[in-house]
Specification:
Elements (H helix, E strand, L loop, with lengths): L1 H16 L16 H7 L2 H24 L3 E17 L4 E6 L6 E2 L4 E5 L2 H58 L4 H31 L12 H18 L2 E3 L4 E4 L9 E2 L4 E18 L11 E6 L7 E8 L25 E8 L13 E7 L6 H5 L4 H4 L1
Antiparallel strand pairs: 1-8, 1-12, 2-4, 2-7, 3-6, 4-5, 6-8, 8-11, 9-10, 9-12, 10-11
Helix pairs in contact: 4-5, 4-6
């Protein structure tokens, strides 16, 4: 066994000491010489390198020269008129017919105030009108009485005057005593005084009738005042039912409930009018060169990206947004940096069918067709149709 193991060990050593067989290596392909590459490049590549920038420059120049007709901005929002709903009278709410975000029509009942106190006030006003009319009739009767008294007093003066004249004639003839003449004179003076009092009563009664004895009862100042108070009471009673002033959507009414006491003129919730819609677009001042009211525009809302709404430029703002800000910029400090300002432009929608689907505050993209390209008038020496107009 030992001899066999020794033989195997010798064989293993011989195999390990034997030289390894050489490995064949494939040589890399031959690279063409630089001179050969230069010979293969033709003139087409050089022409392409020169022509491509020229074509791009020409296309860019054409786009710039013929552009500028359509002015676009994404700084735009849809706007709707918002009305604060309030009660003209104070009282407790006894009826609520609306809910938050509910669509209402003009004239629909929104809520009602307790009408009972105002019914009582109206009844009192009716009674006051009746009393004023009765008072005018009494004043008219007083005037007639004053006229009768004046007529009676005038007759007494005539009688006293005749008695005095007779007594004076008899006293002059020595037939009557002087005391009789004095008595007749005294009676005449008293009659004249009573006539003056009666005449003053006529003036007073006439003044009580507004200076016109034949005045209509309802034209008398007292009656007119009572009627005005009655109309005010009737108006207050009618105002206990609050109705929608226009078509719209109720907003911020989630906390408005029955039993709530409201004050006169206190805003309770809002009504967003769906019939009064416009878009306020804030264009850069450099975009307003050829923009004017009456031009057509396209509006795309972020809510409806696949639909284009037609609009018309209604008005251009009187100043930039910075001019009407709470703290306008002060450029007199020496740190002035020129910044392109934005001016609001109002656009009116021409699509009445889409009014109910729109909501105030929606973001929009506005494109206005000014009708004037950027470089055409200068290049061709004539004005466009929009400039001619």
């Amino acid at each position: 066994m030992n001899a066999v193991a020794k033989v195997e060990e010798n064989v293993t050593k011989l195999e390990m000491e034997a030289p390894s067989q050489p490995v064949a290596v494939t040589p890399p392909p031959m690279q063409p010489a630089p001179a050969a590459l230069k010979k293969k490049r033709g003139p087409g590549r050089l022409l392409l390198m020169v022509a491509l920038p020229l074509v791009l420059a020409a296309a860019g120049g054409y786009v710039w020269v013929t552009g500028g007709r359509y002015q676009e901005t994404e700084n735009a929002n849809l706007q709707q008129a918002k009305v604060s709903i309030a009660s003209d009278i104070a009282g407790r709410v006894v009826q609520v017919d609306i809910a938050d975000n509910q669509l209402v029509k003009k004239g629909d009942v929104l809520f009602a105030i307790d009408p009972e106190p105002h019914r009582i006030a109206l009844a009192q006003a009716d009674a006051a009108v009746a009393a004023a009319r009765l008072n005018v009739e009494q004043l008219r009767a007083a005037y007639s009485q004053a006229m009768a008294q004046e007529k009676s007093a005038s007759s007494e003066v005539d009688y006293a005057q005749s008695q005095y004249d007779r007594a004076a004639d008899l006293a002059q003839k020595g037939i009557n005593a002087k005391s009789s003449l004095d008595q007749a004179r005294n009676d005449l003076d008293k009659a004249k005084q009573q006539l003056a009092v009666a005449q003053q009563g006529i003036v007073s009664a006439k003044a009580a009738l507004g200076g016109n004895p034949d005045i209509e009862t309802d034209k008398h100042p007292t009656v007119m005042s009572a009627l005005a108070a009655r109309d005010k009471a009737a108006y207050d009673l009618a105002q206990t039912t609050v109705r929608a002033p226009a078509d719209g959507v109720v907003s911020q009414a989630s906390s408005f409930k029955v039993g709530q006491f409201v004050g006169s003129g206190t805003p309770l919730f809002s009504l967003v009018e769906t019939g009064d819609i416009w878009v306020d677009a804030n264009f850069k001042e450099t975009q307003l060169t050829n923009m004017k009211p009456g031009q057509k525009a396209d509006i795309v809302l972020d809510t409806y990206p696949d639909r284009t709404f037609q609009a018309t430029v209604k008005a251009i703002g009187a100043g930039t947004g910075a001019e009407f800000s709470l703290l306008p910029a002060q450029n007199a400090t020496g740190n002035w940096v020129k910044v392109t300002q934005r001016i609001p432009v109002r656009l009116e929608l021409n699509d009445p069918d889409a009014r109910m689907a729109l909501r105030t505050g929606m973001s929009a993209t506005v494109t206005v067709d000014t009708g004037v390209a950027r470089g055409l008038p200068k290049l061709f020496g004539h004005a466009t149709a929009s400039e001619a107009n």
